[in-house]
Amino acid sequence: MHFDPLNEPYASRRSAVYARNGMVAASQPLAAQAGLEMLQRGGNAIDAAIAAAAALTVVEPTSNGIGGDAFALVWSQGKLHGLNASGPAPAKLSIESLRQAGFDAMPKTGFAPVTVPGAPAAWASLAEKFGRLPLAQSLEPAIRYAEEGFPISPVVGSYWRGAAQHYGGLLKGPEFAEWFRTFAPDGIGPSIGDIQKLPDHARTLQAIAETNAESFYRGKLAEAIDGFSRRFAGFLRLEDLAAYRPEWVEPIRIDYRGYDVWELPPNGSGLTALLALNILKGFEFAERDTADTLHLQLEAMKLAYADGKAYIADAGAMSVSAAELLSDAYARERRGLIGREAMAPGPGKPRRGGTVYLCTADREGNMVSFIQSNYMGFGSGLVVPGTGIALHNRGCGFSLDPADDNVLQPGKRPYHTIIPGFLGKNGAPVGPFGVMGGFMQPQGHVQVVMNAIDFGLNPQAALDAPRWQWLEGKTVEFEHATPRHLFDQLVRRGHDARWGRSAGAFGRGQMIWRTDAGVLVGGTEPRTDGHIAAW
What is the rounded (10 degree) CA torsion for 364, 135, 85, 28? Predict the structure, then answer.
């Protein structure tokens, strides 16, 4: 990867980090240090990723948990490997069963949107396939943080308090009592700098460590989840957990100006980022901060999202394949729709033919792009009593329209927003990247890839640069650091442009590149408690 190390035109809170032996970039300092601890104890980048991911369930429960899903891209043994550890809908969850339970739309809280959690299985699968250390060793820092306590970092503290206030007015049934007991016994949650202990969480992580996650799917933890679900007429059962296995998949890619941009195939939405980049590679961009550049990016993103929302689903349920959507012919067709004025997008018809993100690298060449999430902050609002397991709500990504590719069906995985990214060139790895944050994620991927490849920004500057987010129709939001004259020009082109409500709305990312000399260069997100641990 070639870039000017001093090309940092935006006000940075920090400089890019350079190291040689290993690097862990995460959204919370203690989690990054947990990963570094594994590297220094003889582990590799995979062990470091597992340690950081498990630690994040403790120190940043506002965005992920043991009861969530995960995805990973792993460069090891000269090849990029993909892991889909998202879970399917329970056998008892269907449109009919929801109707019988009184729902006419997929709710965001409670048991209805709870699908089989995949995160513990992801850790175990990664350790078994690529790790050097036993899973139990990689989980030690997370267990220690949960048992002994950890200080609440600023962004986590803010989100935690916000969640307590939000849930206080929303979650009223007895099934939600354990969430408040675990995370906000005083009704308001911890303050920034408070020491927080999560003893139930520690015991659950210990059980996962001792059984290589078997307890979660086919043991005592699975029985606890099943019992909790049955007690409150939920849909998740022991049989759903016992049948679950994460899936190793082939990543999908496009060539973008000589670089391989890799994403995971559906049911994740990484395809959306590739669709947008495939359109944008047909344009030339001399500068980043121009109205023409922003307009083309926004219009391409709209078209990509229209197709993504129409076609992305569990891979076997898609009416159009990823290969068809990523064809050069289809990209030219969609590119031809872009004019000088803002448009309201619709899907094309190709011819047939609340999340945490982290990345790691080691001196041996292993690199990991990893993302895990409970969705919408703490997820469903449900915590399995006595375990600290906050169950996610990924099922709310399903459609209830039988005509949709992404319609709810038992045993089917929902449309997923969380996506890890990876960049390569000439058959060699450049490095992992990701930007978490719901539907912002593909948009963040497009922006940081272009910042690095088109505009030569180093990883930290690529993350620091002001971002935009398309919301719907012609409505777009911009960070306040965006030059006002560009904002005004886009309004004149028909964009319903607005200033962003908060920095958190524009995603939170991490990046690690490997230079031609083998030096690791890392960037971490200024919009969160981001940190890079390196040696």
Answer: -70
CA angle 329/449/267 to nearest 5° reads 65
Span 358-401, pLDDT tens digits: 999 999 999 999 999 999 999 999 999 999 999 999 999 999 99
CA proximity to 392, closest of 179, 535, 232, 165: 179
> Comparing C-alpha atoms, which of 248, 278, 242 is closest to residue 260?
278
> End-to-end CA distance of the chain, in Å?
21
Reduce the DSSP state of residue 150 to 3 states and report it.
Answer: strand
Q: What is the DSSP letter of 350?
A: P
Residue 204 within a domain: yes
Give the range of the structural domain holding residue 372, as residue numbers without chain letter.
18-248+356-397
Domain count within the chain:
1
Q: Let me know if residue 417 belongs to a domain.
A: no
Largest Cα separation within the chain, whole Å, is 62
Residue 513 is assigned to a structural domain of this protein: no
pLDDT, tens only, 6-53: 455 555 557 899 999 999 999 999 999 999 999 999 999 999 999 999
455 part of a folded domain: no
Q: 372 is written with which tokens?
A: 């895990």
CA–CA separation, 70 and 84 (whole Å): 7
Instruction: Specify the pTM.
Output: 0.95
Q: Which helix (H) or strand (E) holds 259?
A: strand 259-263
CA distance 26 to 43: 18
* CA–CA gap between residue 201 and residue 197 (Å, rounded): 9
Q: Which two tokens stand for residue 365?
A: 């060449």
Asked if 150 and 196 touch (Cβ cutoff 8 Å), the reply is yes
